[in-house]
TrEMBL record, chain A:
InterPro entries: FAD-dep_OxRdtase_2_FAD-bd, FAD/NAD-bd_sf, FRD_SDH_FAD_BS, Fum_R/Succ_DH_flav-like_C_sf, Fum_Rdtase/Succ_DH_flav-like_C, SdhA/FrdA/AprA, Succ_DH/fumarate_Rdtase_cat_sf, Succ_DH_flav_su_fwd. Substrate binds at residues 232, 244, 345, 380. Pathway: Carbohydrate metabolism; tricarboxylic acid cycle; fumarate from succinate (bacterial route): step 1/1. This is Succinate dehydrogenase flavoprotein subunit. Belongs to the FAD-dependent oxidoreductase 2 family. FRD/SDH subfamily. The active site is at 276 (proton acceptor). NCBIfam families: sdhA_forward, sdhA_frdA_Gneg. It holds the Pfam family Succ_DH_flav_C. It comes from Thermovibrio guaymasensis. Residues 5-386 form the FAD-dependent oxidoreductase 2 FAD-binding domain.
Automatic annotation (TrEMBL), chain B:
GO terms for biological process: respiratory electron transport chain; tricarboxylic acid cycle. PROSITE patterns: 2FE2S_FER_1, 2FE2S_FER_2, 4FE4S_FER_1, 4FE4S_FER_2. InterPro entries: 2Fe-2S_ferredoxin-like_sf, 2Fe-2S_ferredoxin-type, 2Fe2S_fd_BS, 4Fe4S_Fe-S-bd, 4Fe4S_Fe_S_CS, Beta-grasp_dom_sf, Helical_ferredxn, SDH/FRD_Iron-Sulfur. Binds 1 [4Fe-4S] cluster. Residues 202-231 form the 4Fe-4S ferredoxin-type domain. Belongs to the succinate dehydrogenase/fumarate reductase iron-sulfur protein family. It catalyses: a menaquinone + succinate = a menaquinol + fumarate. It holds the Pfam family Fer4_8. This is Fumarate reductase iron-sulfur subunit.
Amino acid sequence: MLTYDIVIVGAGGGGLYAALETSRCKGLRVAVLTKVYPTRSHTGAAQGGINAALGNVAPDSPEKHAYDTVKGSDFLADQDAVELMCEMAPKVIREMEHMGLPFSRLSDGRIAQRPFGGASFPRTCYAADKTGHVMLQTLYEQCIRFGVEFLNEWFALSLVHNGERIAGLTAVNLRTGSIVGIRARAVILATGGHARIYWKRTSNALGNTGDGPAMALRAGVPLKDMEFVQFHPTGLRRTGILVTEGARGEGGYLINAKGERFMERYAPEKMELAPRDLVSRAIETEIMEGRGFEDEEGNKFVYLDLRHLGRKKILERLPQIRELAIDFEGVDPIEEPIPVRPTAHYSMGGIDTDKFGRTSIKGLYAVGECGCVSVHGANRLGGNSLLDIVVFGKIAGKDAVESIEGLDFVSFPESKVKDEGERIKALFNSDGSEKLSQLRNELSDVMSEGVGIFRSEEGIRRALNKVREIKERAKKLKVYDTELTFNTNLQQTLEFLNMIEVAETIALGALERKESRGAHSRTDYPKRDDEKFLKHSIIRKGDDGELRVSWKPVVITKFPPEERKY
Amino acid sequence: MERREVTFRIKRFNPKKDVRPYYQEYKLTVPRGMTILEALQFIKDEIDPTLAFRAFCRSAICGSCAIKVNGFPKLACKTQVFTELDKFKTSLLTLEPLDNMEVIRDLIVDWDGAFERMKELKPYLIPDPKVVPDTLDEETRVYPEELKKYDKFTDCILCTSCYSICTATQIDEGYGGPFQLARLYRFAVDKRDGLKEERAKIGYAYDMWNCVRCEKCADVCPKHVGPVDAIMRLRGISIDIGLKDNPGARHVLAFYKSLMESGLLNEVLLPLRAKGIKGVLENLPVGIKMILKGKAHSPIMKPISEHESLIKLMKAAMEVE
Ligand SMILES: Cc1cc2nc3c(=O)[nH]c(=O)nc-3n(C[C@H](O)[C@H](O)[C@H](O)COP(=O)(O)OP(=O)(O)OC[C@H]3O[C@@H](n4cnc5c(N)ncnc54)[C@H](O)[C@@H]3O)c2cc1C
Ligand code: SF4
Ligand code: SF4
Ligand code: FES
């Protein structure tokens, strides 16, 4: 058994910011536990940028940022939390700048800002098209500076609590294969998103499997707004790998097979820079109505054309995008348009928290993409997630330090470690009549069809039933690799089991929300219904193992809901 | 749609179980466009679930998946199978773990040593209170030209490819390492940093002068970072701050001087440039390590024909002056 005052699970931007905040308080034993080496975390893949009303390019204010965010969220975001985030944004940006983050600069030396979808001003601070990468590296460097302790390549398995307060967690050290109990007075989950559920078309890393929400669910902690999954308009045709919104921010066009800039039909004012949910639906509609392209493998797509930006701008502002397009599609954006299609990208829903990151269990926090404060509501704006992770990472880190003062450890039954051992042993001993890759593809297909960009009662029901069927069949999955050292067969199986649990909540939430709002677009209920659904869906697993849905009001301060036009 | 029959010959090893590493072959039909990583995952999914390798982002940004493909470090996720087949004119690809690090299992190596070394070099900004505002209401002014000095070196994804083939790392335990020293340089020229030039001393203490400029780090870097450029510039700074006058620096200078006098540079650097460390080792099986450390005379001292050009090369190597 290991013992720490605070354990942070996850070393992306959210986890690292929380760690830095806790490191200000000397004498606390804090560990960051992560299944990949910290700088591998998916925050590093973020390209486009991070929002803050610095007003360096055009006059701006936190209030305008808040309004755009709330409007982008289709009014489902909690406005007090949004205001807090937007108010803190300029300060955290400067804090990171003071840590050495190499932001791109204006000619007068101030931080540069670019336009992004759904924002009224160029508000997105960036470092070329590697913003998340340099953010992650900078935060990690500062963690080294302040001596943060890391448990690298450890996989968290389950949460342990006494119904009221957190006691710690169990985890497996991937290198040795040993399962360990870790006691802690506070646990901060920062495990990232779960868009890998849409395995075959997603921009996410292989490990974005919703481990945090799945652990929370199993521990009886409620999840919020799970039905909202964002599809990014521009994933590469074959792999779903992301082409940043920055490409449209810099002036890229979307073109259909007729050669039209079709966004004219959907968002005449904002065109390509309308919010993501809208642009994704526009592309899918073009494809459905026969105005898309199709390649010999049957991939359907439209073009993202950057050629008119010119060689210089592309090389300067979007060098990585160019390389990705060349390496993964064989297309040089300087010469040719890039084939793209929407890709599962971001999880608006997550573990239900308040604006301090607190969950229903005292001492258990969730921050970043695995949590839901909520500041993104039904649709996140580009550049707001990197902001969310650092702001709420900071807040939760601070709150955790303060909250454990004077608190003792809660008893941690040894049996909890054994339980996890048993769960894993069963995977080695199963009959293996089902196959991981097969089930994973089936899950991906059924989720994309039933709870993808367009949804309907019938489709969702089918998806939900199918997910439950897959869940049953998954009991027959077998881990064939019996070694203790770096058993990636075991890890991938555990991740898949987590994905199924989370997938079920997405489908259930989608079924219950009988309206269209943000990323949740129901063909049978095409309108937003504020009367019935201006509220958060909450899903909790009861002791009987059944999922239960309830609702929670949305916090509205300054911005009364209005129709969303772009 | 073009498909090809490909044999993947993969080096396998579980030190906990196997006496020695062995190769296992997997035959696959590979469609055009498939990456090495997709091939590995296919093998794991459909043929052999026990195959161990690392991967995460699958878009060349996390640095997890670097392995050797037919002897060269590559990111598995951004390397297309067909490209490699064409390059080597073969239907067989050998996949092995990176060198210079211990194998934990199959293609997974132990990064700890490389990263611990980076940590020793203090790879983080220590803000200069004279430059960085002490309030969060203001940002530091950094002009685009100033950013340019180090921007490229912030692209490093810590994939350890460069470290795995670095000549100096192979022969000098005290060597700082390519990506590690590049990161050190990145801070040395950041106006916001409190140590700035002083950081060259760290590079100095970590034997940056033992870099032999073989440029392999630059050749293999998937992000075009070119650590050797940073190291050369860091050396420049170190001379600028007068580091050449202490005993350690004298030792280094003496080494270079003796190289210049003996013409040994021909033996050491030229084959190295042409063929890499392997070439050098073939030419100089004994004593190379000592020579490069400046602690011994060359066993093969030849009269020098192109002494002039050698001196020029030498000077270029020193960069400064
Ligand atoms: C391709 C791409 C581009 C993006 N671009 C932008 C952008 O330009 N602007 C923007 O604002 N947002 C962007 N986003 C979204 C944003 O990057 C993410 O939402 C954000 O980085 C998530 O950060 P995080 O700290 O919550 O989690 P992550 O960075 O995903 O980190 C999760 C951490 O949890 C650990 N972990 C997970 N499960 C376990 C477990 N079981 N045990 C132990 N450890 C575990 C992982 O090891 C990892 O360290 C982008 C997302 C993608 C996919
Ligand atoms: S140039 Fe120097 S740092 Fe780069 S690989 Fe060669 S010896 Fe190592
Ligand atoms: S410098 Fe290049 S090769 Fe070396 S670790 Fe960084 S990205 Fe990899
Ligand atoms: S998987 Fe991330 S670099 Fe290859």
